[in-house]
Structure formats: C-alpha cells, structure tokens
Amino acid sequence: MRGVVMHAPGDVRVDDLPEPTIQQPTDAIIRLAAACVCGSDLWPYRGADEVSEPKPMGHEYVGIVEQVGDQVKQIKVGDFVVGSFFASDNTCEICRAGYQTNCVHADFPGPSQAQLMRVPLADGTLVATPGHPDEDLIPSLLAASDVLGTGWFGAVAAEAGPGKTVAVVGDGAVGLLAVLAAKELGAERIIAMSRHADRQALAREFGATDIVAERGEAGIAKVRELTDGLGAHSVVEAVGTQESMMQAIGATRPGGHVGFVGVLHDVAIAGDDIFMTHVHVHGGPAPVRRFLPDLIERIWNRQINPGKVFDLTLPLDQAADAYTAMDQRTAIKVLLQP
Ligand SMILES: [Zn+2]
Fold first, then answer.
1. Cα 105 to ligand 1 centroid, rounded to whole Å
2. CA angle, 137 as apex, 96 and 330 as ends, to 5°?
3. Which residues pair with 211 in a beta bridge?
4. Do residues 157 and 132 make contact, with C-beta atoms less than 8 angstroms apart?
5. Which of 84, 133, 237, 310 is a plausible cystine mate for 288, CB 3.0–4.6 Å?
C-alpha cells in the first residue's frame, strides 16, 4: 500500500509500505476514507522534533472497517468509523472519568497517512457513524478525529460556557475549532487571536465576536481592554510555545481557566504566574474519545461544519505538497485522499 514517510525534516515521501495486519485480537484494520496532515506533524518537519529514522506519518482518520480481531464485539466489518489519535479501552477507571488519552491500556493507532491502518482496542477506540456518510460530511468527521476534539477539549478545560468571555490563542485548525466549540458551549463573547485575514474570517464564521491581532504583552493588553481590564474568563492555548502559554495565562482573569492543548515545546510555567493570579491551568493531549459520540451527532445533524478548516485537498501521493502548504501557511489544513 501507499503511505507517507518522513525521511528527515523537510523530506516527506509517499512510499510502498507493507499492509498492516491484525496483531492483537482486539485490533481492527480500516481502509482510510480520508486522512490529513496535522499541525503537530510540522514540528518534526521543521526539525523541532528529531527524525532519527524514516517515520510513517499520520494520526487522524476516518474509514471503513475491513477486518477485526476475534475479540472485537461492537465494531463490525463494513462500519464507517471515527477514532482518535490514542487507542483506549474506554472501560478502565481513567477512561470512565473521561481521560482516555491516559487509559491504563493506551496505545497508538496508525500511522494513518496511508491507505490502510491498524487500530488497537477497536471497541474502545472507534465510534461507528449511524450509516455511511454523505461525501460532504467526511471532512467534518475527519476533523472530529483530532482538531475538533482537541479544540473542544481546550474549550471544556477552559470552562467555556454561557455568560463567559473566551479567548483563543492560536489560529491553526485547533484554535479555530476551539472558537466553534466555545460557541456551541454557549459562550457569550469569543475573542480570536489571529494576525491572518483568512483565518480571522473563518474564526468569525465559527462564532468569534472579536479579533485581536496583537501578540504577547500587546495581545494581553488588548484582551484586558475588551474585558473591563479583567481578562477573559476562559482562554484556550492552541500553540504550545512559551510565548503562547504566557499570552494565554496573562489574558486570563484572576480565578479564570486556561485550557492548553498545543503540544508543549520547552514551556516552563513559573509558580508565581499561577499562584498569585488564581488562574486554573488544565490541559494535555485531548481525550477526544470522550467527545466523539456528541461531535459525530452534531456533524451528522449538520449543526456544525468543522470540515471547513480543510482549505486544500490533495491525493495522498502529493503529501509532500500538503506538508509544504501547511509549513508555509498557504493552507490551514490539508485533506489527503487515499
Ligand atoms: Zn482505559
């Protein structure tokens, strides 16, 4: 089968790879209906994460179940399924508390930038859609697999809700979908922090009421200005750098909540930044599985259209162009057709 392999930073190729097989009786093999490139794939692409050996890529997926192991009971061959980037049993105490990314049996599905992929713990990890989706729903279901689920967790971790002012740091797909999540969760005012006109427009479409183009201290000052000098109740951090984290904490009012979902790269939070401000800081790799049934239902009912973050579609064989487009910010997010 064809699959995307990163050979070195900046060197992405589509290679012939062995087809995945059932390794555990709880596995499923799915045929990808669509795959995509994640903002987090850009860290190794840009050399910020080491690429010590050729690495098959991808962790976002939707597709049709082609094969299941003997112990898979709920997921059936032929189901159209959505899963998240962590495999989880969805039955242990940690899963039942809603933190499936820390499942005691957590495992990694994929890689998914390919024609076929293996999903461990299929019954716990995968959620079947009510039927085979119309073609136009596939991008949104794919978004649910990571960027929507991650933005949603960011908004939930930041306690977005009715009466709240929510600010979002980061205008990648996750940040934009955190705006959508805040809107769906009933936030009164949503401040998107973005310097790019096309992303500002999509943020507004997803529910942003205000745009702040400034960053760092100037961005914090602007958010305070918009909130009677107090700061936002809820701030979603969707980048993962020291600067964005300090911008998020600084833009939060005393006693407010930061939900951080950008994969952290050398971020250190000083005790005083949280001790003296009473800001709550909660985040991590999003337990997307917690939200999948609800997100699928909202997409299926056409209540939300998170698939709009995909502004470029390419055949899998042009994956190198997809990485270039996202690296150079000519595309927000690229969908790959296997
Ligand atoms: Zn578990």
1. 6
2. 100
3. 192
4. no
5. 84
Q: 125 CA distance to ligand 1 centroid (A)?
A: 10
Which runs of consecutive H residues, i.e. helices, occur in 227-265? 242-250
Q: Reply yes or no on whether the pLDDT at 48 is more than 90.
A: no
Cα 181 to averaged position of ligand 1 atoms, centre (Å) = 25
Q: Looking at residues 6-15, what average pLDDT do you find?
A: 97
Domains of the chain (ranges; CATH) run 2-146+287-337 (3.90.180.10), 151-283 (3.40.50.720)
Global confidence as pTM: 0.96
Kindly give the distance from the C-alpha atom of residue 310 to the centroid of ligand 1, in angstroms, as a whole number: 31
Q: 158: closest CA among 294, 306, 260?
A: 260
Mean pLDDT of 175-203: 97
For residue 45, the surrounding DSSP H or E stretch is helix 42-45
Taking the centre of ligand 1 as the mean of its atom positions, its distance from the CA of residue 145, in whole angstroms, is 18
Distance from the CA of 124 to the center of ligand 1, in angstroms?
8
CA of 295 to the centre of ligand 1 (A): 20
Instruction: Report residue 62 as tokens.
Output: 């939707």
Q: Confidence band (pLDDT; 50, 70, 90) for 225?
A: very high
Q: Are strands 28-36 and 62-68 parallel, antiparallel or unpaired?
A: antiparallel
pLDDT in tens, 53-106: 999 999 999 999 999 999 999 999 999 999 999 999 999 999 999 999 999 999
- Centroid of ligand 1 to alpha carbon of 121 (angstroms): 10
Instruction: State the distance from the centre of ligand 1 to the C-alpha of 266, rounded, in angstroms.
Output: 28
Instruction: Kindly give, in sequence order, each residue whose CB lies less than 8 Å from that of residue 10, ignoring residues fewer than 6 positions away.
Output: 45, 46, 47
Distance 7 CA to ligand 1 centre (A): 33
* Residue 39 to residue 265: CA distance in whole angstroms: 13
